[in-house]
Write a structure and sequence with these properties.
The chain has 1 helix and 25 strands. With 425 residues, the chain is mainly β. The strands form 6 sheets. Strands 1, 2, 7, 8, 9, 10, 17, 18, 21, 22, 23 and 25 form a 12-stranded antiparallel β-sheet that branches. The longest helix has 6 residues.
């Protein structure tokens, strides 16, 4: 078995070319078929050195006696963890490769990937007296998914066509978190609202966690009608134009306990398509890719500056009864927490399709330059990130940064155009 401490991890794979067996009858429907499967374990120790011991640093100075002399002091900066070990990921996959109708190449893979002992810093009480969080193996998660790739190639005289498409489905779930709780705060925080994600058993890793909105109060009557079981308003301090928060736990008041799961930043579907065409001296290549089924936290505005710029969609904010049911009123102190609360107001669908690469080329006839010792001259024009189809209104749905799906204004990918000449001697 795997040695988590020293990093020994096993793996194996098996394959069976069924079409090479004697019982396989040659046919044009399925000309080749290979079944395969495998299992492997890999390790990850991507954290700073010496996390398993209690390190000491200076700067903890103190006076001794009544002389006022200061003695240089040293103290622990973190706690030790002698049981710290590699984070391990085991994966089992089964699939097949087939050639259909002598023109289609089909590949299908199903996998189950389990990660145990996820390395994370541990939050400890301040009274312990150390300044740095210790690290531990405190979480497990599971990924399972299906990947399908289909390719088509055909030659018709001087015309060549190649199409290759792929799509994958992913389901992610946290299966274990520590021994004394079923969740820990997530890795992403946004300004004064604190953490925006949570790592909890039964949910995707770093799932968005916050308040759920139920429209906007249009008038005082709606505020007074949103009552608890005792007949008292659930949001007595709200005003027309404020969000109606969901009373998730049904206790009749809006508190931190009403936060709920709001969606995952991990795409459920990832897909791509490549097209290659050629006709005589012309060639064409296009590559598009995209994702679907994920949410993006759109955090492009600073909360610590009340008059900082909004995006233009703020022009459609609530300004009176019936004017908006999804963008609240604008006031300087935000008493209802319309903008300072982590809620689904900040989340948008992250689905997109992007033309990543588009290239058109033309190869000059050889008789033009054959006497110059040149074998080939090709002119081409290339565009990267030519266009993106998405409903996300931030800069770029392919959000980078520390935690996937948290958009804090990372610089978007640029659209570029390149022209060139290729010469072969």
């Amino acid at each position: 078995g795997p040695d988590k401490k020293y990093g020994y991890f096993p793996s194996f794979s098996l394959g069976w070319n069924i079409n090479k067996e004697k019982f396989w009858a040659n046919n044009n429907l399925v000309s080749t078929l290979k079944l395969r499967g495998g299992y492997g374990v890999v390790g990850n120790d991507n954290l700073a050195d010496f996390r398993y011991i209690s390190t000491i640093s200076g700067g903890y100075n103190y006076p001794v006696g009544n002389t006022g002399a200061v003695t240089t002091g040293y103290a622990q900066t973190t706690l030790d963890n002698p049981s710290l070990h590699w984070e391990t990921t085991s994966q089992m996959n089964v699939g097949f490769d087939a050639r259909l109708l002598n023109t289609l190449n089909l590949t299908v893979d199903y996998y189950i990937k389990k990660t145990s002992g996820i390395l994370r810093p541990v939050t400890i009480p301040g009274y312990v007296g150390v300044s740095n969080q210790p690290w531990a193996n405190i979480a497990d998660m599971k990924n399972n998914g299906l990947e399908v790739e289909l390719g088509y190639n055909k030659r018709l005289g001087e015309f060549n066509l190649g199409i290759n498409g792929n799509v994958s489905f992913l389901e992610n779930e946290v299966t274990y978190v520590a021994s004394d709780a079923d969740y820990i705060n997530g890795d992403a925080a946004f300004q004064s609202m604190g953490t925006t994600t949570r790592v909890q058993v039964g949910q995707p890793y770093n799932v968005f966690y916050g308040y759920k909105t139920m429209g906007i109060f249009q008038n005082e009557t709606e505020i007074n009608s949103y009552n608890n079981k005792d007949g008292n308003p659930i949001q007595p301090k709200a005003r027309p134009g404020d969000f109606r928060w969901q009373d998730t736990n049904g206790d009749g008041v809006i508190t931190e306990a009403d936060k709920t799961f709001l969606g995952s930043n991990i795409p459920k579907y990832t897909f791509g398509l490549t097209v290659n065409l050629s006709y005589r001296n012309f060639d064409f290549m296009a590559f598009a890719q995209g994702v679907a089924g994920n949410k993006i936290f759109q955090g492009l505005r600073r909360l610590d500056i009340s008059n900082s710029n909004f995006q233009t969609k703020a022009m459609g904010r609530w300004t009176g009864e019936g004017t908006s049911n999804d963008f609240p009123r604008l006031v300087s102190n935000d008493p209802n927490g319309n903008f300072s609360n982590m809620s689904d107001f900040y989340l948008e669908k992250g689905d997109y399709i992007r033309m990543k690469l588009l290239q058109v080329g033309y190869t000059l006839p050889r008789n033009i330059f054959s006497n110059a010792g040149i074998s080939r001259v090709r002119l081409y024009v290339t565009s990267e990130n030519l266009f993106t189809i998405t409903g996300y209104d931030g800069y770029d749905p392919e959000v980078g940064g520390g935690v996937f799906g948290i958009d804090k204004g990372q610089y978007p990918q640029a659209r570029s155009f390149i022209g060139g000449i290729q010469v072969q001697f």
